[in-house]
């Protein structure tokens, strides 16, 4: 658990705080996304957790202990850190890059090797193919996977991720986000994630902290609550006009009550893992009013555009 208690940061030679009296708590095992316009203090907030930046006042507690209880170096070895610029060492192999922190922690060679292979598998890179390559021999998306693997190497309970999927094309980015959510389902880290992309925040965050210019917290809540009730003009304009569609992207087809399948043939197939937003767009794109929902066990039911519309007219989705 990470708790911010009235944390402020004023940089030297600056008269206005970059971050102002932030107080909020990130529960164990959750993803908290810091989002907001450029310069609102997201990166500053995140870097105070591992003390790459020291607060001017207030404190940050990790599991109830101030993060000043140990040295900054020790603290940083116990917290994973992945950044957009990736920061892979160009003259070290992928395996050596991933092993950076385990090597600092003096793990044995065997332990390091098996951990590297395990992580490469986890992020979808075949160990035999990639472990001895150099970063320049990988695509941008692959390098970002390595960046995430490196941050997870010593299995830290907390991960800080600063726009880790920022520098890739939208399709790769979606894939990296999906992979990351799948991994998180198993590893349940406490994650602080910085982005300026509200869609990414909604997709990944268990909770979202929306920061305003001047480093104040405009809202800290679940995506569902923020989308159903933005609460202020700033938040409403930041999340944009398509709130209903965004809410559709929070719910997967398999989570809603389906209609019984009536054996209709020729209807589009909708995978139960699709979001309602993607299902809607698939149905609209195919000119079909209804689709057959399938899962691992075969046909699960049917879903219609009318049913999706009704759910969002009444606001009754299972997640509410
Ligand atoms: N080392 C520094 N010295 C002085 N001012 C700084 C320093 N780092 C950041 N700032 C200022 O503090 C404010 C917050 O910066 P920060 O990088 O935390 O914002 P951000 O929300 O992460 O921005 P972006 O989305 O553009 O990366 C900005 O006004 C920035 O100019």
TrEMBL record:
Catalytic activity, EC:
7.6.2.9
Instruction: Enumerate the spans annotated as ABC transporter domain.
Output: 2-239
- Quote any Pfam family the record assigns: ABC_tran
- Any idea which GO molecular function terms this record carries? ABC-type quaternary ammonium compound transporting activity; ATP binding; ATP hydrolysis activity
Name the keywords, alphabetized.
ATP-binding, Nucleotide-binding, Transport
Matches recorded under InterPro entries: AAA+_ATPase, ABC_transporter-like_ATP-bd, ABC_transporter-like_CS, P-loop_NTPase
Q: Which PROSITE patterns match?
A: ABC_TRANSPORTER_1, ABC_TRANSPORTER_2
Q: What class of enzyme is it?
A: translocase
**Family to which the UniProt record says this protein belongs:** Belongs to the ABC transporter superfamily.
Q: What is this protein called?
A: ABC-type quaternary amine transporter
């Amino acid at each position: 658990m990470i708790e911010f208690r009235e944390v402020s940061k004023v940089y030297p030679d600056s008269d206005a705080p970059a971050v102002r009296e932030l107080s909020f708590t990130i529960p164990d095992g959750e993803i908290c996304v810091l989002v907001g316009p450029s310069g609102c203090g997201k990166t500053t907030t995140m870097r105070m957790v591992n003390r790459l930046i020291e607060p001017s006042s207030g404190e940050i507690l990790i599991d109830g202990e101030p993060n000043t209880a140990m040295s900054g170096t020790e603290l940083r070895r116990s917290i994973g850190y992945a950044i957009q610029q990736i920061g892979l060492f160009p003259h070290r192999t992928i395996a050596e890059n991933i092993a950076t922190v385990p090597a600092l922690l003096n793990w044995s060679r065997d332990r390091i090797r098996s951990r590297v292979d395990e992580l490469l598998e986890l992020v979808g890179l075949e160990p035999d193919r990639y472990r001895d390559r150099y970063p320049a021999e990988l695509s941008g998306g692959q390098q970002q996977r390595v960046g995430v693997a490196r941050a997870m190497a010593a299995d830290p309970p907390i991960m800080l991720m600063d726009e880790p999927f920022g520098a890739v094309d939208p399709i790769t980015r979606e894939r990296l986000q999906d992979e990351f959510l799948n991994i998180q389902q198993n590893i349940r880290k406490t994650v602080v994630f910085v982005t300026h992309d509200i869609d990414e925040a909604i997709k990944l965050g268990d909770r979202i902290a929306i920061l305003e210019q001047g480093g104040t917290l405009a809202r800290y809540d679940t995506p569902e609550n923020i989308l159903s009730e933005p609460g202020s003009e700033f938040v409403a304009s930041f999340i944009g006009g398509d709130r209903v569609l965004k809410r559709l992207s929070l719910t997967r087809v398999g989570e809603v009550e389906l209609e019984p399948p009536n054996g209709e043939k020729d209807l589009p197939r909708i995978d139960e893992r699709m979001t309602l937003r993607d299902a809607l767009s698939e149905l609209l794109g195919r000119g079909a009013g209804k689709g057959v929902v399938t899962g691992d066990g075969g046909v699960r039911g049917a879903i219609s555009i009318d049913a999706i519309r009704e759910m969002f007219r009444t606001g009754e989705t299972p997640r509410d």
